[in-house]
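Backbones bend. To wit:
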Amino acid sequence: MPGKPTYEELERRNKELEKEVVNCKRTEQALRESEKRFKNVTNSIEELLVFVDQNFKIQLINSTLAQAWNISLDDYAGKYCYELFYGRNDICEGCPAIQVLNEGKVTRGALRYRPDGRIYDRTAYPLIENNGDITGVIVVGCDITEQKQAEEKLRKSEEKYRSLLETTSQGYWMVNSELKNIEVNPSIYKMLGYGPDEMLGKSPFDFVDDENRKIFIDQLSKIPHTTHRSYEITLKKKNGQDVNTFINATTIRDESGEVQGAFALLTDITDIKQTEQRLKQREKELEIKNIRLKEMNSALKILLEKRDEDKKELEEKVMTNIKELVLPYILKLKNTGLDQRQEIYADIIQSHIEEIVSPFAQKLSHKYLNFTPTELKVAYLVKQGLRTKEIAKLLGSSPETITRHRKSMRKKLKLTDKKSNLRTHLLSLTNGYIE
């Protein structure tokens, strides 16, 4: 049986205990400070952070997660992650912590949708002790809702863009910085008759002749210096036929301004070009016809002038013959001792012949073609100053009949209800054409 410790031994043991208490307090203080720093670090992280043990009980969450789920940092102790975050009674389907606990590997990119629709990209890390045992899982999550929404908008935009390119009647042609075809829409294939494997990876130079190759070279040389270009070029179809196209080209640059390639919208204008060609040909034909028409008009003008000359010559011959061959014999007839009645008839014959070759006769025959032959005779006698009874006696008619002819003539000459004298009017017509 050991003896009682001495005073010295008790004092030494007391001092050792005091040192141990001091060391424990220091360790406890250091532990509190370390825990405080750890919380400060975790709460400073913008990503969501949660630490669960092997049974999926929550051991720690940071302030970012607490704020996102509207949870107090004091309310998670002793609760399961699926219970606190999703109100479930069992583990969530696709939980990354299961794979981490089973395989001990980091699991990345596991997505989770919150009930309010927000999306999180999660990465789960195993917590491994010194002995190699996995005692828990740390899950770090990042809110990627806006990113996913932007990606969805971009996806829909790309679908619309793709649909537009595949359904538009315009051709779409894209080349890279090495002038190789990297994208061509169905309208180009239809326009040229090639398939994708026959165009992609090739150069636009493979689809033009030598003359249009020069146009392409000139336009492609402008890519580094211009953004937009418009020009016409003729492409070659697979069957060798020409396709006239109008191109709107745009240069593609990166953020630094370096040229990455170019794309172009092509419109088939072959029909328009053919129509223009036909119109030009028609214009040439019309121009030739116009020249011929002018020549014909000139010839016709010459013919008409010749006809007028011939007509004038004929009139002059007729008048000359009448004056030289007819009138002299009438004058001789009047000198053969005619009685009074015969002399009157001879005067009338002479007067009528002179009237026939006078402008007065031409006036009546052209402007007053609606005069009857009898009215013309009466008009000639009225102009000679004969009265109605004298005219009736010479024409073997009654005065009443001559009066009716005079009224009819006044009506046709538009002298009805006017005080104009018929003889005076007839003489004025003659005066208008005096030789």
